[in-house]
Amino acid sequence: MTLDDGALDALFRTARTKSAWTADPVPDETLHQLYDLLKNGPTSANCSPARFLFLRSAESRERLKPALNPGNIEKTMAAPVTVIVAHDPQFYENLPKLFPHADARAWFAGNPDLAEETAFRNGTLQGAYLIMAARALGLDCGPMSGFDKAKVDQIFLSEQGWRSNFLVNLGHGQKDDPFPRAPRLEFDEACVLL
User: Which family does it belong to (predicted)?
Assistant: First the structure.
C-alpha cells in the first residue's frame, strides 16, 4: 500500500517544525494514541529502549526551564506538551519479555558500552517515530536539542537512571511560518547507488 499525497504531505512534504503554538490543548487520550502508534516502529531485537516524559503542566515545564538554551525557552513555555525523549541504558532487563525467543539480555548485560550504543541508537529511532506518529495524528512538532542534558537528567530522570536525548514540543502550531522551508540536499548530494 502506498500512502496518498495528502498523507505524504502531512508526514513529510508540508510538515514544518513549529515554534509558535495555539492555546489548543493536547488531550491525554491523544498522547496514549501517539505512544500506541510509535511503539510499533522497529528497533533491533525489539529492544524498545526509548522512554518518554510528557510535560503537560506549566509547573513541569518550569522545572525544565533552567535546562533550556535561551532561544528555546519561550517556545517551550508556550507549547501544550514538551516531550523528553530519553532512553533506558538497562533496557535489556525487558528483553526476556520483548524478545523471548533468544537470550538477548545476555548480549548486553555486563557490556555497558554496547548497551549504551544500542539504547541511544534505537531510542533515537523511537523519538523519530514519535514525530511521525504525532504528525499522523494531526499534531505539530518542534524537536530541539538546545538544552543541558545533565540538568534534565538530574531534574527528571535520576530516579530511573534514564538518559535524555532530545526534546519535542507538541501541539497545534500557529499557521504562519516565519521562514520559508530551508533547502534540503538533493539525491546526488546525499546518496550513492552501488
Answer: Belongs to the nitroreductase family. HadB/RutE subfamily.
